[in-house]
Amino acid sequence: MLIKIVTIIFLLTILYSLASSLIFLVRDKGEGDRTVKRLTWRIGLSIVLFVFLWAAYQMGWIEPNSGPVRIPPVAESEP
């Protein structure tokens, strides 16, 4: 459950950074560097989230699932 909370917090922070960079882009009319700084933060947070999820998978904290569609395995035919 802790992994889900951390992931959601990271995603919300990334979305906040993206939205604030859009606001700064509109307010500054392309003159300031606040937009670039926020987008740089967004990229950095995305990379940290990716590395965190990869490390959590490698340590066995999270496991992938097959998703909502269940496809039965194909039976092998004997020659």
Short account of what is shown:
The protein has helices spanning 2-28, 34-58. It has 79 residues and is an all-alpha fold.
Describe the protein's topology.
Blueprint: H1 2-28, H2 34-58
Helix pairs in contact: 1-2
Could you list some keywords that capture this structure?
79 residues; mainly alpha; 2 helices
Q: How would you characterize this protein structure?
A:
The structure is a single chain. By secondary structure, the protein is an all-alpha fold. 66% of the residues lie in helices and 0% in strands. It has two helices and no strands. Helix 1 runs antiparallel to helix 2. The radius of gyration is 20 Å and the shape is elongated. The model has no long low-confidence stretch (mean pLDDT 86).
Overall body shape: elongated
Low-confidence stretches: none
Roughly what fraction of the amino acids lie in strands?
A: under 5%
Mean pLDDT: 86
Structural class: mainly alpha
Q: How many distinct beta strands?
A: 0
* Major β-sheet annotation: none
**Global Rg:** 20 Å
- Into which percent range does the helicity of residues fall? 55-70%
Query: How far is the N terminus from the C terminus?
Result: 48 Å
